[in-house]
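Write out this protein's structure.
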Amino acid sequence: MPNYSIGDIQGCFIALNKLLTKIQFNPANDTLWFTGDLVNRGPQSLEVLRFIKSLGKQAIVVLGNHDLHLLAVSKKYAPYKKQDTLAEILMAPDCLELCDWLRQQPLLYHDVQLGYTMVHAGLAPQWDLTKALRCANEVQTILRSDRYPEFLAHMYGDEPHCWQDELTGWPRLRLITNYFTRMRFCKLDGTLDLDKKGSAGNPPADFLPWFKIPNRAHKDLKIIFGHWAALNGKTDEPNIFALDTGCAWGNCLTAMRLEDGKRFTVACAEKKSM
């Protein structure tokens, strides 16, 4: 009963099916972990959502920034952007059902037996696993409640930039969300730069890739993440596993078998101009 973690799909359903054929996925026994960003940019986001939802307990999903964007657009708390490819979902008869399923998904998943932690983008350097789980739960609780439209209305923004335990209210929830779903570079104290999107080897001054922060509180964790396509699946860190390999941008879709770390890739089915 193998477990496979799959990087950001972003609506590339054809590539996902090719990858599942390659790994000989058996839905009766195998489990798929998804690093978030199931939707947007690629051409078949509706098919991706419907398929992963249909897997039930055989699918483990963490939310990415594009997944949250879909929720916000569906409730009209964010504009539909020119580059979005979400219209098919928004017009689907099961749109509400799919979005309700999506908002039940966590920001962090930790498997004690396999020893992996999965997030979409990263973890604040001050957070150990216990702290990260508590912070994730704060956002998950409101997303799963009747107050979730209120959260979506306050979700967007780059401030505050740095974690402090004393933060409260929407600024606290917004920063937690940004760490889990948007971070790439940060300072030693956890200050975020949410604009820079290049390679890990070209950080802004005084910033580092989040997984290169020395003495980060979660250094003992084996972390799976997506979000950062420019890494092309490489971090040069033994316990940090980047799986977003830019399928929606014309590269490939990647899966990693958790039992032995073996990777499987398929080329994208359709290139998209950046």
